[in-house]
Amino acid sequence: MVKPMPKPMSVAEYLSSERDSPERREYVGGQVYVMAGGSSRHNRIAGNIHALCWQMAQDRSCRVYQEGMKLRVGKEGGYDTEQAFYYPDVMVVCGRPVPDEYYETEPCILVEVLSPTTASIDLREKRLEYARIPSLRTYLIVDQDSLFVRHCWRDEEGHWQQQDLTGDGYIPLPCLGGQLSLPQIYRGVFE
């Protein structure tokens, strides 16, 4: 996200206009932000994670999305200023589908690949917003310029934990019954 569009919108206006928009736009509390395009590294990392999660999801009733599906955060029917719609780089949903085919509400895994224009938002604002999602178990923040993943997860008591991984670390993905390794995530990225 860079800077908001000049005119605030309601959730209904945003959802209606988003269907015809040539660019992806995120919605936060009435403000709409146009999304910048990602680098080739960013896309390869997101693609690797998507492919690995998709393979694991085949044995479960889970859906895996890469960048094109919106995530709705906030209480349905709440004030527009309390609503947000984001486009996570990768999203895994293992619950029931929501009635709206244009967004999901109950992810178990969210992944954001850091870029210069979104790093501060991914590390602070989105992390706080995502932590409010009851279904979310794993949030990965992935650096595109070095072998580094911040693994955030909800423990058995519902508290958030964090581990920074470099090199050959492994990341458990309980809702998919598998794990990711850093070499898998970064395959073909720095070659």
Automatic annotation (TrEMBL):
Keywords: Endonuclease, Hydrolase, Nuclease. Residues 12-182 form the Putative restriction endonuclease domain. InterPro entries: Nuclease_put_TT1808, Restrct_endonuc-II-like, Uma2. Signal peptide: none annotated. The keyword Protein biosynthesis does not apply. GO terms for molecular function: endonuclease activity. PANTHER family: GLR1098 PROTEIN, RESTRICTION ENDONUCLEASE DOMAIN-CONTAINING PROTEIN-RELATED. Gene3D superfamilies: tt1808, chain A. It comes from Calidithermus terrae. This is Putative restriction endonuclease. Pfam families: Uma2. Residues 1-20 are annotated as: Disordered. It comes from the Bacteria.
